[in-house]
Specification:
mainly beta; 2 domains; eight-stranded antiparallel β-sheet; 43% strand; globular; binds calcium ion
Length: 347
């Protein structure tokens, strides 16, 4: 993607594309085009450079495209808390032509992350769902927005702080963004925030399989913000089960299982459950067994013939907001949960 060619320097600190997602919403940039960036948060007085990135990842002065300061007409309202501004930069020199990715001689379906590695999810897998969110709109043959309804819907639990609005579900250069904003909204009562969620209820449901998503979580150095979740759910809780492949529960990213007996088991994910940035969260659901994977590595497993259901479950990704003393981590808005892809395999 063209936007991966960009590098941003803010006050002499170099941020990679992932890090600057919360400063800027990059658009594809090509030679001769005007590039438009929307600044969602910016330190007052920051200087922004836009530059091309060389093949060795370095940045050079010659490649500098624009230099802007937090003044005059180029940056408006560059406050530290949620100011919005538009920056226009003209490309002075053409970007290098990307090297085309060689086309494999035979079509190879992606395999689960970590496949073939020690403790990886080995075996024979058939790809059943593969959404990379490459289109300009959500594929509604697979997904619906919100939670049990169309348009603006109430959240899952009455205590939650955000309504779900389809407008908060944005596809952006191959990334699905579930955006949280401060906006008082009515959905069976007025809630102070608005957020995004997608699910496959009545469209795709699975009994058993390997479920994987690459997700960007917003986190501080010691807590995941809000209550992001990537999970599976049956139609009648808890009899038909719930598989929480990843949820930021009270600031800690965890995997949790539920079944006919209620609670199953759970694990902290990663380093003490704190992992801002991009990670791959996956679970294998097999007869009598649940296995949790984090970045392609086996994290833990749970076996129970009575508490692991075979009932079909649908997929859900939601940027939930809950009071911190209920389910959520520290409240942060604006914020977002980003998804690069969702894949499902079955044996
Ligand atoms: Ca993608």
């Amino acid at each position: 993607m063209m936007n991966m060619l960009m590098f941003i320097v803010v006050n002499q600190q170099v941020f990679n594309y992932e890090k600057i997602r919360h400063f800027l919403k990059p658009k594809p940039v090509r030679s001769g085009m005007t590039a438009t960036f929307v600044i969602t948060a910016m330190v007052s007085g920051a200087i922004i450079y836009m530059a091309t990135r060389a093949a060795d990842q370095s940045i050079s002065a010659e490649a500098e495209l624009a230099r802007l300061s937090g003044s005059a007409t180029t940056v408006n309202d560059a406050g530290a808390s949620g100011g919005r501004a538009v920056v226009f930069g003209n490309l002075a020199t053409p970007l290098p032509t990307p090297t085309p990715t060689p086309t494999p001689s035979t079509s190879i379906s992606p395999l689960p992350f970590g496949y073939g590695a020690a403790n990886g999810p080995n075996g024979t897998w058939n790809l059943k769902l593969n959404d990379n969110f490459d289109g300009s709109t959500l594929d509604t043959s697979i997904w619906s927005t919100g939670w049990h309804g169309s348009g603006i819907t109430p959240p899952n639990q009455s205590q939650e702080l955000a309504c779900y609005d389809p407008n908060q579900v944005v596809l952006d250069n191959g990334i699905l963004r579930l955006k949280i904003d401060v906006k008082a909204t009515n959905c069976n009562g007025t809630r102070p925030y608005i957020s995004g969620a997608i699910n496959t209820e009545n469209k795709r449901a699975y009994s058993y399989g390997y479920f994987e998503a690459r997700i960007w979580l917003d986190a501080s150095s010691n807590a995941v913000y809000n209550w992001p979740a990537w999970w599976l759910n049956g139609d009648s809780w808890p009899t038909t089960g719930e598989v929480d492949i990843m949820e930021g529960l009270s600031g800690t990213a965890r995997a949790n299982w539920h079944g006919p007996e209620g609670n199953g088991a759970g694990y902290e994910l990663g380093n003490g459950g704190v992992m801002g940035g991009w990670h791959v969260f996956a679970a294998e659901w097999a007869p009598g067994k649940m296995v949790s994977y984090y970045d392609g590595k086996l994290l833990g497993s749970y076996s129970s013939n009575s508490n692991v259901t075979s009932a079909p479950q649908y997929l859900i990704l939601m940027a939930q907001m809950s009071p911190q003393d209920r389910y959520g981590g520290p409240i942060k808005a604006p914020s977002e949960m980003d998804i690069d892809y969702v894949r499902v395999w079955q044996r």
